From TrEMBL, chains A, B, C, D:
It is an enzyme of class 5 (isomerase). One of its GO terms (cellular component) is cytosol. It comes from Antarctobacter heliothermus. Its EC number is 5.1.3.4. One of its GO terms (molecular function) is L-ribulose-phosphate 4-epimerase activity. InterPro entries: Aldolase_class_II_sugar_metab (IPR050197), Aldolase_II/adducin_N (IPR001303), Aldolase_II/adducin_N_sf (IPR036409). This is L-ribulose-5-phosphate 4-epimerase. One of its GO terms (biological process) is pentose catabolic process. Pfam families: Aldolase_II (PF00596).
Amino acid sequence: MPLDALKSAVLEANLDTVRHGLVKATFGNASGIDRETGRIVIKPSGVPYPEMTPQYMVLTDLDGAALDNRFRPSSDLDTHVALYRAFPQIGGIVHTHSTYATIMAQARRPIPPLGTTHADYFRGTIPVTRDLTAEEITTRYVAATGSVIAETVGDRDPLAIPAVLVAGHGPFVWGRDPAEAVMNAMILEEVAKMAWHGAVLDRQPPAISDALLDRHFLRKHGANATYGQ
Amino acid sequence: MPLDALKSAVLEANLDTVRHGLVKATFGNASGIDRETGRIVIKPSGVPYPEMTPQYMVLTDLDGAALDNRFRPSSDLDTHVALYRAFPQIGGIVHTHSTYATIMAQARRPIPPLGTTHADYFRGTIPVTRDLTAEEITTRYVAATGSVIAETVGDRDPLAIPAVLVAGHGPFVWGRDPAEAVMNAMILEEVAKMAWHGAVLDRQPPAISDALLDRHFLRKHGANATYGQ
Amino acid sequence: MPLDALKSAVLEANLDTVRHGLVKATFGNASGIDRETGRIVIKPSGVPYPEMTPQYMVLTDLDGAALDNRFRPSSDLDTHVALYRAFPQIGGIVHTHSTYATIMAQARRPIPPLGTTHADYFRGTIPVTRDLTAEEITTRYVAATGSVIAETVGDRDPLAIPAVLVAGHGPFVWGRDPAEAVMNAMILEEVAKMAWHGAVLDRQPPAISDALLDRHFLRKHGANATYGQ
Amino acid sequence: MPLDALKSAVLEANLDTVRHGLVKATFGNASGIDRETGRIVIKPSGVPYPEMTPQYMVLTDLDGAALDNRFRPSSDLDTHVALYRAFPQIGGIVHTHSTYATIMAQARRPIPPLGTTHADYFRGTIPVTRDLTAEEITTRYVAATGSVIAETVGDRDPLAIPAVLVAGHGPFVWGRDPAEAVMNAMILEEVAKMAWHGAVLDRQPPAISDALLDRHFLRKHGANATYGQ
């Protein structure tokens, strides 16, 4: 993907997080990667959304080293770098503090598959990380956040459950490209909202069957997907 | 109804589900039927809402067989077909994953008539289907969803309670035409929202009396309706 | 007040209920009265809000008898008439099914003064009516709704607590003119929302003191009001 | 800061409270101070937001005495004066009745640091004042509201926890200037919303560690802040 196209895609992904109500103030950031060259494009730190143009997007290599020097990258860059290294299948990452996903992250509540809205995008329970240790927080906080997400995913396919809730923080979400990561972040917020409401109504809301989970997930994903034109 | 008018009505119904906040992403679909010719018009699968025009709407017969070949129909077509066959009184169907109706569908909670907002549009409790069996899910999922809805309605008048919550999925809603189906879907979301809030406050919120239920429903429906100009 | 001005004020009050999110579909209605001539102006029944102009507003006398014959009045006219007769101090009435006020009406929960937002507009608990009897519902439903509201207010000053929740139905709200009734309906929805959230958190949320209640209410109302320019 | 710039900043702060949904009707007010001259600029009382221009802003000295006579100041002026006197570090104050912050103020619930959204702006629990006594309410209500806030902050740094919930009333929030006060009020509403949802799910939701609290707060505040360009 040409660098200009990637910068535009990352800018659009960042703006879409605001348009969909997932990001307030300057919380949140989106990035994308060109796997051929190993170049990452990420939001700059603390720039108001209305002012951003593709030229504000920051370019780094796969170690997170800046390849241009105009703007400082998002303060969460090292988390993105860790995820791109851990998950070679992914091409875009979105981090938000969207309300209900964050409520569940703060409550350390995994989100089970309660319905087909969930199953259309996530093939199973969306997990919560363990808490970071004080040592991790003080010595290598941002990179450790990436490590603990990778540790939580373990050897599962990161594209089958493309989100993790970081305990006491909020969601990191990914996809094959930045636009898919935004879509997954939007669906995550909706299923988190429904999961919170379900948990208040019934302490143990019923999960859907594996048959229904697979039926919906595989309708939209994988070799036998039938959804769309 | 001329085919062009039906396509426009179905397009508007689909767009209205988005305008009223009942549908996010490409979840949801609306259809209509011309009973004289037995032709069904339904949303295409996976086309972004802003791009849709009447020409994108897909035409099928009452077996769900495509009558034109431009676009693939909504992946829920077979549910719509089953409902049009089971309920000859209805002329439009809307399926959404609207937030509160879906929360109640996931919790397997029927929605009792707690107030006159409900009674103006639904003459009694809005029911939830049983769960589909693994065999139904794996062999004939979409059509079985229609069958289980029809099984849930039983021999009641489908226009007296024009919605069913599909367990672990979301609402299917209908009406005499696509526009009425959308209106019923909007009211369903509102009464589901109020029912959730009522159930959190009181485990057994009080239903209104049959006298009040009938007074409101019959003011707007049937031979003795007095509402409107 | 000239009739044209009253019709415009009533139209604006009706449109404001939609703008403030208090009314969906065609639920809800607002009216005003000219006390000198005893003429009532009220919303027509079942006309979509975008189509309404002042000419659509319906004129009646204090018995609810139509003084013009173009449009049928709101189906709740007889409730408005009963309230104008019972409360000579009031000049405007608004009825909505606004979400949280309706949730509290369905739950038969009075709204105690939990904070100064409430105290600025309501000098005490907002009450809920008793349920109507089956006989009242079947023989004189709309007028009986007005009677039971008046019965609930009793000999209190209707302008000190300008709203009542009708059990299983929703709020009726009033003021010295239609615009004030809309403002009171908007504040009612907000205090109902906060009361619901308070009741979920604590079964018996603490009411504010009479000293604070009076301090706030009397800052905005009565002979010694100091608020505004 | 020139007086015209301060008036514009205070006007913008007031309008932003409405734009961000923190203020309904004419509830709420924002002010700013020029510390060199000791002049305070505050919203006028009871003027509709759409009509306000910089010329409507009211100028007072540090005793709250009017320095011009065109408009009456916000009825909460004496609270602002008390806070500017108690906290020399602050340059702007915002008062709102924003929904969730007010719900927590009514419930007398302090807001603990449940996540990093909170920690980015508040270095610890956001406290609730004691109730005012009847004597305070009847003799010096508005100034006493300021005193009880200062009493609640005690000898803590007011810029480390730039908000207090006034029991039975709502939040007062501040910052180094009016714009920062608005931002803090917006974040407060979001963390109050998440705290309410957390408390409903778990009676005692877990607070984040001091290490994480400091890591996030100090990334954005103080001599070693690294956030932004």
